[in-house]
Amino acid sequence: MRTTVGIIGAGPAGLLLARLLHNAGVDSVVLESRDRAYVERRQRAGILEQGTVDVLRAAGAGARMDREGLRHDGIELRFDRRRHRVDFPALTGGRSVMVYAQTEVCKDLIALQLAEGGPLLFEAEALAVEDAGTDVPRVRFRHEGREDVLECEYVVGCDGFWGVARKAIPAELTQVFERTYPFGWLGILADVPPSHDELVYARHDRGFALLSMRSPSVSRLYLQVPDGTDAEAWSDEAIWDELERRFETADDWRLERGPITQKSVTPMRSYVHEPMRHGRLFLAGDAAHIVPPTGAKGLNLAVGDVVTFARALAHQRETGSPELLDTYSETCLRRIWQAERFSYDMTTLLHRPPGATGFEDRLQLARLDRIASSRAAETDLAEAYTGLPFG
Fold this sequence. Notes:
Blueprint lengths: L4 E4 L3 H12 L4 E4 L4 H6 L5 E2 L1 H9 L4 H6 L1 E3 L1 E6 L2 E6 H5 L4 E3 L2 H15 L3 E2 L2 E7 L7 E6 L2 E6 L2 E4 L17 E16 L8 E5 L5 E7 L2 E9 L9 H11 L13 E15 L2 E2 L2 E3 L5 E2 L7 H22 L3 H4 L1 H23 L7 H16 L1 H12 L5
Parallel strand pairs: 1-2, 1-12, 2-8, 5-14, 12-19
Antiparallel strand pairs: 3-7, 4-7, 5-6, 9-10, 10-11, 13-16, 13-17, 14-15, 15-16, 17-20, 18-19
Helix pairs in contact: 1-6, 1-8, 8-10, 11-12
């Protein structure tokens, strides 16, 4: 097989890139190791930045999102039994976010790709990226029981942290920056309408909690738990009791309970791989960087990566200049490190680490009070949460 851009991975990054390239008249082939059903039910992020929403609309993939997604104009911070709302449009010149699950983004993009785009091969396992430093990189893959080779002009690895793309960058050329956190998130899906119409981020002496949602009838909630926690060790009643404690306020707000349909524990880490490009191989999304979910940046960073690549390739085709492709890594990393900074700030602001002292508790409360009392501090949070510009 031969194509212009070989894309490894049919998550939102790989699928969106295929759509952007199709709209620009560039052919591509997408290789995905899992089957379609798995990709369309893989639970991940649910918050889309303003820029991500705009890109999906411009790509022709925003119709169902606009019908079924939930626009949010703010978040609520809870601490010391107090409630403070951060008004995004008032602080950012009109920007907001959209609650629309990654599973739904993938469904929309898969339908478009199969109807209008180039080949999308499910259960096609990428085995290796070869000759990345040449003008004809290759992806060796297995599909329908036999090995094949995809010859490309460019390869984009959207295959996540455990994928093969990153391994094709020589170790002597790379730097890795990472931090692991001594806690994780116990997350649940529950068949109950959300108890608040916007996300609630709660800092409590017992640990962090987040009230989120997937739809007007399905709630998504999280509890900070020690690293290595087994989700099944928590009964449904214990989860609701703990959520109730951590969301406690001084007014009459109440948490609504309902049947829990799913529970799992997500570990927390920060990770950046530099560079994100080697020859004609480009990394995007979790293949190159991971953020703790506190800032809702993971999917949105991946979108920024593929938008940057698509623009750079279009520039090269229009002008003959490889300048933007050559600076792909540097361009993406500027935005990535700002998102890493924001995600780290939100994580350390709201989570209580094991063995935290009274001094550290007071500092967290002081930082939250600063956001609640300073328009400048509040604006910094709102600008980062709704998304920094791409490119």
